[in-house]
Design goal:
By secondary structure, this protein is α/β, with parallel strands linked by helices. It has one domain: Ribokinase (UDP-N-acetylmuramoyl-L-alanine:D-glutamate ligase, 3-Layer(aba) Sandwich), CATH 3.40.1190.20. 33% of the residues lie in helices and 24% in strands. A hairpin with a 4-residue loop joins strand 12 and strand 13. Helix 6 crosses helix 7 and helix 9 packs across helix 10. The protein starts with a strand and ends in a 7-residue tail after the last helix. The C terminus is likely disordered.
Length: 308
């Protein structure tokens, strides 16, 4: 089953800092890099590196960043023939990463902000089942229209950055919603800081019409609520270097696992392994692991909860 990613492509401008700056504070950074990113592109790279056919649909600007963003996707075997080039700048993300691997991110949409319903018509959705993976770094109108068009497929939405006033009809169009604890808090109006609160938030979101909700809790793992069960998957313990793309790695891994027919529980364990490996390296797309690396990691770390 192919993966279609409809979303953002950004160039990440990454500063390494001793600590994350407070309001009004100026810090001296220790390093600076430019790394291809964007939640959509990151998730596409994550899926492609795991071995499934993956197509990116989105927009870049007619600048040097746009060329580099498409080149990075192609290097990872992501199809980019449906990425349009617009006049103007590509999207960028300004990222601070501290010594503990935590981050602050400011996204300037650029060409991503021009994505509209005409792009929805370009989605390669045929009669064969596919997984459509989306995020909120492109206009919500386009995401909602795409979810509606993909009604016969598996629609996974990563609601990042969070939007607290989603239209009621949006929830009924999504098969799987994957907020982190901050996004879940904003979506439901509850403070989500641990497993019990995440379970409560997941059930609130399910009551709005989503069949499956996965709340990503970072080092606390993930909480899953579906029509059949509610469960918690602990995080794998690893040496954290950079958490910038952990959520994107998780979503790419989840899409691949579900496309290959894994059970929901197995898919979440698989996705957690992909995310765990991603935080052991710096950068967004460069940190995405291969299938072989994930399989070897699971063999050496797995505690017995993985199903076939």
């Amino acid at each position: 089953m192919p993966i279609i990613v409809f979303g953002s492509l950004n160039m990440d401008l990454v500063a390494q800092v001793p600590s994350l700056p407070q309001a009004g504070e100026t810090l001296l950074g220790t390093a600076f890099t430019t790394v291809p990113g964007g939640k959509g592109a990151n998730q596409a790279v994550a899926a492609a590196r795991l071995g499934l056919p993956t197509t990116m649909v989105g927009r870049v600007g007619n600048d040097g960043f746009g060329v580099a963003l498409c080149d990075s996707l192609q290097t990872a075997n992501v199809a980019t023939n449906l990425v349009l080039t617009d006049r103007g700048p590509s999207g960028v993300a300004l990222i601070n990463v501290d010594e503990a691997g935590e981050n602050q991110i400011v996204v300037v949409p650029g060409a991503n902000g021009k994505v509209d319903v005409s792009d929805v018509e370009r989605l390669p959705l045929g009669t064969q089942p596919a997984v459509l993976l989306m995020q909120f770094e492109i206009p919500l109108m386009a995401v909602q229209a795409a979810a509606k068009r993909a009604a016969e497929h598996c629609v996974i939405v990563d609601p990042a950055p969070a939007c607290s006033d989603l239209p009621a009809e949006f929830y009924g169009l999504v098969d799987i919603l994957t907020p982190n604890q901050t996004e879940a808090s904003q979506l439901v109006g509850l403070q989500v800081k641990g497993v019990p609160a995440a379970m409560e938030a997941a059930q609130v979101l399910r009551q709005r019409g989503i069949s499956t909700v996965i709340v990503k809790l970072g080092s606390q793992g993930a909480v899953v609520a579906s029509d059949l069960e509610v469960f918690h998957v602990p995080a794998f313990e690893v040496n954290v270097v950079d958490t910038v793309a952990a959520g994107d790695a998780f979503n790419g891994g989840l899409a691949v696992a579900l496309a290959e027919g894994k059970s929901l529980r197995s898919a979440v364990v698989w996705a957690s392994a992909v995310a765990a490996l991603s935080v052991t390296k710096s950068g967004a797309q460069p940190s995405m692991p291969t299938r072989k690396q994930v399989e070897e990691f699971l063999l050496s770390h797995h505690s017995g909860s993985l199903e076939s």
